[in-house]
Amino acid sequence: SDSIPSIWKHPFAWYSRRLDTHPILTKAITSGTIASAGDVICQYLMFSSRKGKKNESFSSCWDASRTGRFALMGAVLVAPVLHTWFTFLNNRFPGKDVTSVMKRVLLDQLLCSPLFLPTIMSFLWVLEHGVNKMDDLVDHLVKQIPSAQIVNWAVWTPAQLINFRFVAVKYQLLFGNVVALGWNTFLSFRTQQQQVEQVESDNPN
User: Fold this and answer.
1) Is residue 109 a contact partner of residue 153, using CB atoms and an 8 Å limit?
2) Mean pLDDT per 10-residue run, the chain (205 residues)?
3) What radius of gyration do the chain's Cα atoms show?
4) Which pairs with CB-CB distance under 8 Å and at least 24 residues apart come from 193-196?
5) What CA–CA distance (Å, rounded) separates 173 from 197?
């Protein structure tokens, strides 16, 4: 049993050590994995709900490039930004008392969230379409952001209250990633919904 790597014997302890020794890299891998998993779940749910799919398999319909875009978003955008943001919040308003927690939640939801959500959606858009359709990007954001922001507040305000009150700082992004499995599924659904609408507008008949 001594030959068994510690990652298999004590996975949480191994992960915790990696957060101490390589925090950003560890969080990047975790965020990328969970973001891509959310997209795969979304695509599978969309595939399962489709009518007339006959004998198609999910693997034949799976958009791997889109899953890759979500993985890249989680790894290179979400992880480093939120690692830095959570560190700032906890340094500026330390403690688990109600006042400190509420200050962190309010800043997170009223400052970071309205800026970060369009950043994420723009990031995914540019990865898919390049920089040649910026006018369409603006239209996309105007159409999608208001309802997405409302859902964001409904999901993340209570989640961050729990996160900032009860979760140790180094695990806060991990907690966020677990919540984000459902959130990324929602974002992926909005992205796929927009793609369907675009196809329908291009082919009205």
Assistant:
1) yes
2) 58 88 94 90 82 74 92 95 95 95 97 95 90 84 90 93 94 89 73 58 56
3) 19
4) 194/140, 194/143, 194/144
5) 33
